[in-house]
Automatic annotation (TrEMBL):
One of its GO terms (biological process) is nucleoside metabolic process. Its EC number is 2.4.2.1. This is Purine nucleoside phosphorylase. The purine nucleoside phosphorylases catalyze the phosphorolytic breakdown of the N-glycosidic bond in the beta-(deoxy)ribonucleoside molecules, with the formation of the corresponding free purine bases and pentose-1-phosphate. Cleaves guanosine, inosine, 2'-deoxyguanosine and 2'-deoxyinosine. It is an enzyme of class 2 (transferase). It comes from Spinactinospora alkalitolerans. Gene3D superfamilies: Nucleoside phosphorylase domain.
Length: 276
C-alpha cells in the first residue's frame, strides 16, 4: 500500500488534523485551487447531484490523496471534484467511508477535515436515511436539525471538549428553508450498521426522539464543529420503516430512490450554496 493511500490509524485529534492538512495541500495542488469556500460530502446514490450542483473545474481520485481510502459501499464514487457554484469554489466528495467498512472515526471524518483545512468554513453533509415518521415520504429531503450519535465512536481523541448545541448551524438551516420553504427538519440517529434496525430498535429510536436513521453524518459533524466550521445536513428519505405491514428493507431499492432524486438534490444544494 502506498503512502498516499494509507489508512489513518487511531490517533489523537491534532495528528488527524495534521494528516488532513497534508491531504488539503495535495488537493489544492491537484485541482489548482487557492482554497475552498465550502466542502460537500455526497451520500449513497447522490453522486449524480454533482452535475446540477455547479460547474466542474477539476477533479482527483480520492485514493490519491494522503490518508484517504476509496469508499467500497455501493452508490459512492471515489472522486473529489472542484466545482464552481457562482463565485464560490466548492470541494465535492462524491463518496464517503463508513465505520461499517472497517475504518475508524478519524478515517470517516478525514474528508471533512481535509475540506476545512483547504479553507472551507461551510460543510454540507448529505446522505440517505430511513424515516421514523409517518409524515415523511420516500424521496423527500430533510434538513438535519440535530443528531443522536449511537455509533459509540468519536473523531475526537483526548480532552477535546466541543459544544454541539448548535452543531447543525441555525443560519444554514434558515438558508435551506429560504431555498425551499417546504423543506422539513428532523433529528438524525447515527448507527454503525450495516445491518438495518430491528422493529424493537426502530421503536426505541422513535421514542428517543429520532426522525431518521442512517450510518453517516454524526462523526463528520463532530469533527467539523471542533474545527469551527458551520454544518448543514440534508438527508434524503429512501425507506419507510414505520409501517408495521411493510416489506423487508431493500438496499437496492433505497439506492434507486437516491439515484432517481440525485439531480434534483443537486439543484437544491446549488440554490442553498448560492445563498450563502
Amino acid at each position: 500500500m502506498s503512502e498516499s493511500t494509507q489508512v489513518i490509524p487511531v490517533v489523537g485529534t491534532a495528528e488527524a488534523k495534521a494528516r488532513a492538512a497534508e491531504a488539503a495541500g495535495e488537493l489544492l495542488s491537484r485541482t489548482g485551487a487557492d482554497g475552498y469556500d465550502a466542502v460537500v460530502v455526497l451520500g449513497s446514490g447522490w453522486a449524480g447531484a454533482v452535475d446540477a450542483l455547479g460547474a466542474p473545474d477539476a477533479e482527483a481520485a480520492i485514493g490519491d490523496l494522503p490518508g484517504f481510502v476509496a469508499p467500497t459501499a455501493a452508490g459512492h464514487v471515489p472522486v473529489v471534484r472542484s466545482t464552481w457554484v457562482g463565485a464560490k469554489r466548492v470541494a465535492v466528495f462524491l463518496g464517503r467511508t463508513h465505520l461499517y467498512e472497517g475504518h475508524g472515526a478519524a478515517q470517516v471524518a478525514h474528508a471533512v477535515r481535509t475540506g476545512i483545512s483547504a479553507g472551507a468554513r461551510t460543510v454540507v453533509l448529505t446522505g440517505s436515511a430511513a424515516s421514523l415518521r409517518v409524515d415523511f415520504s420516500v424521496g423527500q429531503p430533510i434538513v438535519v436539525r440535530d443528531h443522536i450519535n449511537l455509533t459509540a465512536a468519536s473523531p475526537l481523541i483526548g480532552p477535546d471538549f466541543v459544544d454541539l448545541t448548535h452543531a447543525y448551524a441555525p443560519r444554514l438551516r434558515a438558508i435551506a428553508r429560504d431555498a425551499d420553504p417546504s423543506i422539513a427538519e428532523g433529528v438524525y440517529a447515527a448507527v454503525t450498521g450495516p445491518q438495518f434496525g430491528t422493529p424493537a430498535e426502530v421503536a426505541m429510536l422513535r421514542t428517543a426522539g429520532a426522525d431518521l436513521i442512517g450510518t453517516s453524518m454524526a462523526l463528520e459533524t463532530i469533527a467539523a464543529a471542533e474545527m469551527g466550521a458551520e454544518v448543514l445536513g440534508v438527508s434524503l428519505v429512501t425507506a419507510d420503516v414505520m409501517d408495521p405491514g411493510r416489506e423487508a428493507v431493500d438496499p437496492e431499492q433505497m439506492l434507486g430512490v437516491a439515484r432517481e432524486r440525485a439531480h434534483a438534490m443537486g439543484g437544491l444544494l446549488n440554490s442553498i450554496l448560492l445563498r450563502l
